């Protein structure tokens, strides 16, 4: 999407949000004001945020959680806070903690929405991840979540057809944490929901997007995707993990983190010398643990260092193979 289109989108959405504020009628009595809420899983669900926007008449959820149980917990929390039905769940990018719980939302009548690129990537990611999680004993063949299906796809841009309020979905031009990235603009909440593109003050998942069956991190593209968010300056970024932050602060700090982590991994791989082949062998977990320790020391104000231990293998292998 061009800069001009994005700038116009923010302005037009603000006007649309004001025009679509719920009004009291005989058919629709006055509802509670629109609000943005957050459900956060436990560590077994990778401390994943699912945001939900209650317009006063319906609820839009952003990202479906890692398991059916986590999705059901999110649904229970939402139902405990509002009588508005959940009508849509948006998948921001193709990672299991974003799409595995989708079927639970479909069971209660919600439609799953994703970009066509994200929907196309789900099958390969599901096939790649399922054997790993079964292999480490987290699931059995029977208990692993079913492959997610998407009800509504779009390319480029899509405005959700809501009874009230406004949510605009936009595909970014550059890939981020995976191969494709959607962001959601919620003018009435002043919010920009970006999935794992931003982990503000939290460590990031550095596995990379799946390309030709292999994780392929592209931090240059990730940084370029972050720069695209500057078109929405003035909103608050809500990322898949970590804290909320103003757009500019979120972008600057996330880019600095990615640059710092890339340099840290490069130094570590260089220090291994001929032993760098261990990063692809049985010794790899010990190296990943060491990288997590180094990352914690490098970024002492960041939480969730375990994400480095389990996700840095993609970046470490990419650096070792350069």
Summary keywords:
single chain; alpha/beta; 322 residues; disordered N terminus; six-stranded mixed sheet
Explain this structure.
The protein is an alpha/beta fold and 322 residues long. The protein is 39% helix and 20% strand. The chain is built from ten helices and 14 strands. The strands form three sheets. A six-stranded mixed sheet has the order 1-2-3-4-5-6. A hairpin with an 8-residue loop joins strand 1 and strand 2. It starts with a helix and ends with a helix.
Secondary structure blueprint with pairings:
Elements: H1 3-19, E1 35-40, E2 49-54, E3 59-62, H2 68-81, E4 86-90, H3 96-99, H4 102-107, E5 111-115, H5 116-135, E6 152-154, E7 157-159, E8 168-171, E9 182-186, E10 191-200, E11 209-211, E12 214-216, H6 219-228, E13 236-242, E14 245-246, H7 247-272, H8 284-298, H9 306-311, H10 313-320
Parallel strand pairs: 3-4, 4-5, 5-6, 10-13
Antiparallel strand pairs: 1-2, 2-3, 7-8, 8-9, 9-10, 11-12, 13-14
Structural class: alpha/beta
Order of helices and strands: HEEEHEHHEHEEEEEEEHEEHHHH
Q: What is the arithmetic mean of pLDDT?
A: 92
- Separation, N- and C-terminal Cα atoms: 32 Å
Strand content bin:
15-25%
- Put simply, the count of helices is 10
Unreliable stretches: 1-8, 14-26
- Gyration radius (Cα, Å) is 20 Å
Strand count, sense and barrel status of the largest sheet are: 6 strands, mixed
Helix content: 25-40%
Kindly report the spatial arrangement of strands forming the biggest sheet.
1-2-3-4-5-6
